[in-house]
């Protein structure tokens, strides 16, 4: 695997965004948060941008936020992408490990949550399998947003003392929806 450097920012940096935007747009061509919303998330202290750099080039990126009170703090991975030509090389797994280490050290998280498209296409199944290979547990609850056509399922990676994930995707979506409400709120 490539030698990578991990960086997290909590203050908007236009030059860094310019270096990572291509990967973001490539991975999420439709329906992703706009640059203005992402910037607002950082400006309001509710989001983080993360990158993995190889020889000066951004090859992976993520957007995250925190959910829950201090005792039940979790990291919500809003977006995670690897440059298309490098997918399958272990960089996504590397990025998840970096996010986990950073979030435990900086925020004392007890778990990580993502929402995965709940579909049956090969692409949907490959995404879910990626998360499962990395320890995430798929919950059975299927969530339907009113603003987007595709349904989603929550996945969680438990950390800390308990490695048990109750099959309560509805409860996990409370964290995700609370994060989205704040992210999309007008300043």
Structure report:
The chain is α+β, with helices and mostly antiparallel strands and 187 residues long. It has a domain at 5-114 and 170-184: Aminopeptidase (3-Layer(aba) Sandwich), CATH 3.40.630.30. The protein contains five helices and seven strands; from the N terminus they run βααβββαβαββα. It has a seven-stranded mixed sheet with strand order 1-2-3-4-5-7-6, sandwiched between helices. A hairpin with an 8-residue loop joins strand 6 (137-143) and strand 7. The longest helix is centred in the middle third of the chain and has 17 residues, at 91-107. The termini are far apart. The model has no long low-confidence stretch (mean pLDDT 90).
Task: Walk me through the topology.
Layout: E1 5-9, H1 14-27, H2 35-43, E2 48-54, E3 57-67, E4 74-82, H3 91-107, E5 111-117, H4 122-133, E6 137-143, E7 152-158, H5 169-184
Parallel strand pairs: 4-5
Antiparallel strand pairs: 1-2, 2-3, 3-4, 5-7, 6-7
Give a quick precis of the structure.
Helices cover 36% and strands 28% of the residues. The protein has 187 residues and is an alpha+beta fold. It has a domain at 5-114 and 170-184: Aminopeptidase (3-Layer(aba) Sandwich).
């Amino acid at each position: 695997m490539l030698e990578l450097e991990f960086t997290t920012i909590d203050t908007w940096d236009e030059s860094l965004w310019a270096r990572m935007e291509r990967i973001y747009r490539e991975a999420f061509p439709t329906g992703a948060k706009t640059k203005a919303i992402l910037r607002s998330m950082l400006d309001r202290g509710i989001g983080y941008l993360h990158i993995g750099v190889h020889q000066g080039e951004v090859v992976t990126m993520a957007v995250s936020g925190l959910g829950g009170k201090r005792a039940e703090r979790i990291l919500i991975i809003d977006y995670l992408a690897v440059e298309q030509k490098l997918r399958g090389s272990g960089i996504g797994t590397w990025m998840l490990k970096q996010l986990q280490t950073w979030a435990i050290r900086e925020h004392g998280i007890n778990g990580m949550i993502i929402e995965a498209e709940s579909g049956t296409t090969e692409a949907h199944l490959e995404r879910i399998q990626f998360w499962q290979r990395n320890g995430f547990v798929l919950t059975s609850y299927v969530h339907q947003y009113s603003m987007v056509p595709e349904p989603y399922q929550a996945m969680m990676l438990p950390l800390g003392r308990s490695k048990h994930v109750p099959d309560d995707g509805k409860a996990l979506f409370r964290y995700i929806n609370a994060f989205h409400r704040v992210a999309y709120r007008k300043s």
